Amino acid sequence: MSINTYFLRHLDKKKGSNSEETTPQDSASEDGALAPAQREMISEITANIFKIIDDKLSPLSHLLQAHREELDSHGERITEVEGRVSVLEDIVNPVEDTVKVMEQQVMDLRERIDDLENRGRRKNICIVGLPEGAEGDNPLRFFESWLPKALNIETKAGRFKLERAHRALVNEMSATPSNKPRSVVVRFHNYQDKQRVMNASWNMGMKKEALKYDGATVMIFQDLSAAVLRKHKTFDGVKKRLKAIGATYNQVYPALLKVTYRGSNLQRPSHCGEIHRLHRPTQR
User: Fold this and answer.
1) How far apart are CA 79 and CA 91, in angstroms?
2) pLDDT of residue 175
3) Is position 48 within any domain?
4) Which of 45, 142, 204, 263 has the fewest CB atoms below 10 angstroms from its CB?
């Protein structure tokens, strides 16, 4: 229904309600005189209403049109992006598999490099706790004679044949410098001589005897790479508990802890429960 029709019907109803007050002759004269004027007024009102509506809705129409164009543009871009993503996924999926293979290869190579580094250190020992300056100006000569004497090892001419001996470097970047003496790295000419020193040091430890130098306790360890030492560091808490219950242990290369407790050799993680079982009676 148009606005013109609505107003005309409304006026017709209004005329009907007032028909009792006017005579048929008056109604006929009024219809003939006022109908054109009323129709013109209704048309003018209708035009004004349409103009107002158009003025109000025109900005909204332009805004909706702009949004529609923008949405259409976004739709085209999203379709393009989806296509590119699909292409990238086709490229990336094989690359991910390649990366996993390469990561495994890198891990294997790192382990092999670390193993080679430790093989190069097989003839080295690390001496900890020796006071600074004890080796004098010639560390090589000092350790050639001091090691067999301190560990009661018989050698030809009373000395070992060494290739080099030196203190560890000082970390100048350390914020809290330590007063502890630096460790000493000694490299033997013969692997057998190095092993004799390690065995002698181990036997002293088993006998609860300490290697001393001017009252300072000196300890001898196998020289190992930083990666293996980090693995050994993870056993520190376990070692303290083993000492507390009187168990003996030996660190086996590269990172295996061999434990002896009450005549039982425990080397696997599953044996931890047996340590607790064996130790339980002594706690009561």
Assistant:
1) 19
2) 46
3) yes
4) 263
